[in-house]
Amino acid sequence: MLNNINPEKGMEFGLYTLGDHMTNPVTEKKISQEQRIKEIIELGVLADQAGIDAFGVGESHQTHFVSQGHTVILGALAQATKHIKLQSSATVLSVSDPVRVYEDFATIDLISGGRAEIVAGRGSRVGAYHLLGVDLQDYDDIFEEKLELLKLLNESQDPINWSGNYRKPLENAEILPQPTTGSIPLWRAVGGHPGSAIKAGYMGVPMMLTTLGGPAVNFTPAVSAYKEALSVSGYKVDDFPLGTTSLFYVGDTTQGALKDMYPYLNQGTKLLRGSDYPKQQFANAVDYRDALMVGDKNQIIEKLLYQYELFSMQRFSAQIDLGGMPFDKLMKNVEIIGQDILPAIKKHTKRK
Predict the structure, then answer these.
(1) Global pTM exceeds 0.85
(2) Considering all CA atoms of the chain, what is the largest pairwise distance in Å, rounded to the nearest integer?
(3) Which H, E and C letters describe 197-233, residue by residue?
(4) pLDDT tens digits, residue range 274-303?
(5) Would you call the peptide bond into 344 cis, given omega within 30 degrees of 0 as the criterion?
(6) Backbone dihedral region of 172: left (phi > 0), alpha (psi from -120 to 50 degrees) or beta?
(7) CA nearest 212: which of 71, 18, 52, 1?
């Protein structure tokens, strides 16, 4: 299944978490791992109740994260929610076996009644490779081979015969269970570089493009390259959805949003990259043409519609919990998204 997005309902809006577990930079307190995981599940339930289209959980096998078992959390969400689509954000496919990944997500799909999606990526940090014993020397080749196999598993209705360089062959292998409709929407996570976007297009896999900040127009080469590669490979471009993602925070006022978000954004940046988030770059984010989603609800709507004009994406996904953001602020964001942002975006982007 390439696409379960109905264009007549307009652009989809999703939330995602990488499961970061950090000290609140304002209170200097850190909640327990147990509480953090339960809050992720509760956030997904609230998003479902607010009418948000999708909720994603990612994995990052290193310090400052708790969602290493992201499929387990998605399984809990499959049981606790009713309508929202459940996706990885992303599954680090290079350190996992594609058969196991497919089995896990087929199970989530059956529990949720057909709401599972896989976003497969290489992972932006190397911790998972060291921890799980994967050679970084073959970083690119391992991912490409595993994504090809995962795509084959997802598309084939027959027993699988396959061979590659980084995994033992499959001979007449029957993969069970099978998802509700026989396949699951499969996306390729792309960090912004056109080279990965081109690979997504050539392979015929929908692209989920990360656009964390800076001028949004800087990401148009990747989108154009993706669509051109699809076309060159003989695919019908309109059959393939495009998703984008960014960091997100909405406040009652733009100044309030900036004041609220910066300590947490800076905390996450310092712990993960070892340096502060540049204040001038953050100040520039108030421009509606900047990819970082921060502002009041009207500014967020203006930014999303501007990006929709640039990219014509079918889904935007927001990361709202970076850096130890407290749960009461996350709940307020979900409330504003559901009540104000989502209806406005749907109204302006639904196919007439």
Answers:
(1) yes
(2) 60
(3) HHHHHHHCCCEEEECCCCEHHHHHHHHHHHHHHHHHC
(4) 999 999 999 999 999 999 999 999 999 999
(5) no
(6) left
(7) 18
CA atoms within 13 A on the CB side of 308: 23
Residue 271 tokens, joined? 């712990």
Confirm if 120 and 89 have CB atoms less than 8 A apart: no
> Taking a C-beta distance cutoff of 8 angstroms, is the pair 167, 146 a contact?
yes
Question: Which of 167, 176, 240, 170 lies closest to 202, judged by CA?
Answer: 240
pLDDT in tens, 130-158: 888 888 788 889 999 999 999 999 999 99
Give the closest residue to 65 by CA, choosing from 117, 105, 143, 125. 125
Task: For tokens 């699809």, name the residue.
Answer: 230
Measured in degrees and rounded to the nearest 5, phi and psi for residue 102 equal: -65, -40
pLDDT at 1 over 90: no
Q: Compute the distance between CA of residue 28 and CA of residue 149 in angstroms, rounded to an integer.
A: 45
Strand partners, 162: 170
Rg of the chain over all Cα atoms, to the nearest angstrom: 19
Distance CA 134, CA 137 (A): 9
Straight-line distance from the first to the last Cα atom of the chain, in angstroms, rounded to the nearest whole number: 24
Q: Are 96 and 144 in contact (CB under 8 A)?
A: no
Q: CB count, 10 Å around CB of 158?
A: 7
